[in-house]
């Protein structure tokens, strides 16, 4: 084991690790800054969320190290795929039927130290599962084994997980998981007949989403149901000032925070909107507080680090010698990019609020652990590539 660790460290990819650590450190500082004042108002210790976030970062490093050291073959075994499906399906079912709704959705399981969101875990599982499906499709298609190429049963398992997330209801989790699966399919050129077909498939997918949003804007088919909360977020997205005292409050105060920050910000700890105006400023709207305190330049630096990580993952995927490793890198890179896009879009009003956290910066155990596991897998692939390249010289 010690020899294996030494080999891993010898070919360690610091281009992945350093941005990861910087984002975790920035996130820890901003979580403390965004949460301490409200905790003080409530008569609680101001270090409460800081201490928890430090624990999540520590556990995240353990998860990162674990997946970095494991053999990739472990993720392709039948036991992992089938066992993983039943575990995640069971967690989703438990969250749906055995827990109380939080912000209109039964998507959380409280483990005291942290609350687990099964939809977060599902993102990483689907990346690994879909990568295996598509890699096998390519293998079967090359060998002209049509039966294996057209096997629909694995896709049924994918659909079941997506539907279970949707009925929680967790629209943000469903949208991200669906987008990850869709873009992985597009990235796998062996599964498509031509580039024209790829763009046609993407246009149908995007058109369906746009039509759905238009229909929901004109009619409210969920009025009086448990999905009303989800619809109110769409209303706030279209015109937050019309519902300023209700569902539009969070977005409006996010606008104020971004406006107050300007280019250089008010200074660390000097945010006004976090003082009871912006709800839950340390979770999915932490970028608004960051913008107010560190300015547009501070936010741009954070986005640059995420962009670097994502592009690095895609580059590792391009360099991969087998389809499975390449698709894992594309899938995890898409995972990071889509989460960033959804969070940034919600904070700036470009997308409806979905409750998606910002990678490594927002407060949260589920997100930190799953993202760290995912990054560890990419590091694993990168180390193997660097080792093979060095041995060839």
TrEMBL record:
Main location: membrane
One GO-annotated biological process of the protein: regulation of cell shape
Transmembrane spans: 12-34, 54-73, 80-97, 109-131, 152-167, 198-216, 294-315, 327-354, 360-383
GO cellular component, one term: cell division site
Keywords: Cell cycle, Cell division, Cell shape, Glycosyltransferase, Membrane, Peptidoglycan synthesis, Transferase, Transmembrane, Transmembrane helix
Molecular functions per Gene Ontology: lipid-linked peptidoglycan transporter activity; peptidoglycan glycosyltransferase activity
Transmembrane among keywords: yes
Subcellular location: Membrane
Catalytic activity: [GlcNAc-(1->4)-Mur2Ac(oyl-L-Ala-gamma-D-Glu-L-Lys-D-Ala-D-Ala)](n)-di-trans,octa-cis-undecaprenyl diphosphate + beta-D-GlcNAc-(1->4)-Mur2Ac(oyl-L-Ala-gamma-D-Glu-L-Lys-D-Ala-D-Ala)-di-trans,octa-cis-undecaprenyl diphosphate = [GlcNAc-(1->4)-Mur2Ac(oyl-L-Ala-gamma-D-Glu-L-Lys-D-Ala-D-Ala)](n+1)-di-trans,octa-cis-undecaprenyl diphosphate + di-trans,octa-cis-undecaprenyl diphosphate + H(+)
Record Pfam families: FTSW_RODA_SPOVE
Keyword Repeat among UniProt keywords: no
Membrane protein topology class: Multi-pass membrane protein
Superkingdom per UniProt: Bacteria
EC number annotated for this UniProt entry: 2.4.99.28
PROSITE patterns the record matches: FTSW_RODA_SPOVE
Described purpose of this protein according to its UniProt entry: Peptidoglycan polymerase that is essential for cell division.
Family: Belongs to the SEDS family. FtsW subfamily.
PANTHER family: CELL CYCLE PROTEIN, PEPTIDOGLYCAN GLYCOSYLTRANSFERASE FTSW-RELATED
The protein's name: Probable peptidoglycan glycosyltransferase FtsW
Biological source species: Liquorilactobacillus vini DSM 20605
């Amino acid at each position: 084991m010690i020899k294996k660790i030494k080999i891993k460290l010898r070919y360690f990819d610091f281009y992945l690790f350093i941005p990861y650590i910087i984002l975790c450190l920035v996130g820890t500082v901003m979580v403390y800054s965004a949460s301490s004042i409200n905790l003080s108002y409530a008569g609680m210790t101001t270090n409460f969320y800081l201490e928890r976030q430090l624990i999540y970062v520590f556990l995240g490093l353990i998860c990162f190290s674990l997946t970095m050291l494991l053999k990739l073959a472990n993720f392709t075994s039948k036991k992992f795929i089938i066992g993983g499906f039943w575990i995640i399906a069971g967690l989703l079912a438990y969250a749906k039927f055995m827990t109380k709704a939080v912000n209109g959705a039964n998507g959380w399981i409280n483990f005291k130290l942290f609350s687990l969101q099964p939809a977060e875990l599902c993102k990483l599982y689907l990346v690994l599962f879909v990568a295996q499906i598509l890699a096998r499709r390519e293998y079967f298609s090359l060998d002209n084994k049509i039966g294996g190429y057209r096997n629909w049963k694995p896709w049924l398992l994918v659909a079941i997980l997506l539907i279970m997330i949707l009925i929680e209801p967790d629209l943000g989790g469903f949208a991200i998981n669906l987008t990850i699966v869709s873009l992985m399919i597009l990235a796998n050129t062996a599964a498509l007949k031509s580039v024209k077909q790829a763009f046609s498939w993407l246009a149908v997918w995007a058109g369906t989403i746009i039509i759905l949003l238009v229909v929901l804007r004109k009619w409210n088919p969920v009025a009086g149901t448990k999905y009303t909360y989800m619809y109110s977020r769409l209303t706030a997205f279209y015109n937050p000032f019309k519902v300023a005292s209700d569902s539009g409050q969070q977005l409006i105060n996010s606008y104020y925070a971004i406006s107050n920050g300007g280019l250089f910000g008010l200074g660390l700890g000097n945010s006004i909107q976090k003082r009871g105006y912006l709800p839950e400023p340390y979770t999915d709207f932490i970028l608004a507080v960051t913008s107010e305190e560190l300015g547009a330049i501070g936010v741009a630096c954070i986005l640059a680090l995420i962009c670097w990580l994502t592009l690095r993952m895609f580059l590792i995927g391009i360099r991969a010698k087998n389809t499975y490793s390449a698709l894992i890198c594309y899938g995890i890179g898409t995972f990071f990019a889509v989460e960033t896009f959804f969070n940034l879009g919600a904070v700036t009003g470009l997308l409806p609020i979905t409750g998606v956290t910002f990678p490594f910066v927002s407060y949260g155990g589920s997100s930190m652990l799953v993202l760290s596991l995912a990054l560890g897998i990419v590091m694993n692939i990168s180390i193997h590539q660097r080792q093979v390249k060095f041995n060839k010289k």
